[in-house]
Design brief:
36% of the residues are buried. It contains four helices and twelve strands; from the N terminus they run E-E-E-E-E-H-E-H-H-E-E-E-E-E-E-H. The chain starts with 5 loop residues before the first strand and ends in a 14-residue tail after the last helix. It is 19% helix and 23% strand. By secondary structure, it is of the alpha+beta class. The protein folds into two domains: 109 residues, no CATH class; 73 residues, no CATH class.
Length: 201
């Protein structure tokens, strides 16, 4: 059975045999000795990392080690509330920091993102916005499904990739899954990396 370590745009951890293009973590071990998820996060440090870095080999869900999480792409990682790793993805982190446009470091960004991604009861924070106002890379919820906003279209997310392209309507208010500070970074020019399936739909 696959591990419960894939992340969807809502930030939920689920099981699938589909592979992701980025790895990440939430500040520590989320699993127990049976390799079962027992908590949604360990700290406010939610990052998205490269799958491979400096030849380091990891055994997934090792005892007392951080829980490796996997995302379809960077847009999904952002929607779930993660940010680029400042070590293995330093260039992307610096670009994100520049788009944030505040003299902050990683701990301060993590603190601001944390309150924008989950509330005091651990539920995902969303907000309402006109669809026409959203930049590329945002995720929205429509009737319980998550869609990526890109140019003039909406793309249905699945664990395997994007499908179900539909025209992006201009006169609709939607529920936004991507945290508000991250949406503002997209408006400032940060463009998240997307899965190759986006170009095939």
């Amino acid at each position: 059975m696959p591990f419960q370590n894939r992340v969807d745009p809502y930030g939920t951890l689920f099981r699938t045999t589909a592979r992701g293009t980025l790895m990440g973590n939430r500040g520590g071990a989320l699993h127990d000795e049976r390799q079962e998820i027992v908590r949604p996060y360990k700290s406010r440090r939610w990052i998205a990392c490269l799958l491979q870095f400096k030849g380091i080999h990891r055994t997934v869900m090792s005892p007392r080690m951080y829980t490796e999480l996997f995302f379809l792409d960077e847009a999904v990682a952002f929607a779930a509330g993660h940010r680029p790793c400042a070590e293995c993805r330093r260039e992307r982190f610096n670009a994100f920091l520049h788009a944030w446009n505040h003299p902050l470091g990683a701990p301060e960004i993590d603190a601001e993102l944390h309150s924008a991604r989950i509330d005091g009861d651990g539920r995902k924070v969303t907000f309402q916005a006109p669809l026409h106002s959203l930049p590329n890379g945002c995720f929205i919820d429509i009737d319980g499904s998550s869609f990526l906003v890109w140019d003039d279209a909406l793309f249905l997310w699945t664990p395997e990739g994007y499908t179900g392209r539909q025209r992006r309507p201009d006169d609709r208010t939607v529920t936004v899954l991507t945290p508000r500070p991250t949406v503002e970074c997209f408006r400032q020019g940060y463009q998240p990396q997307t899965h190759e399936s986006l170009t095939l739909v």
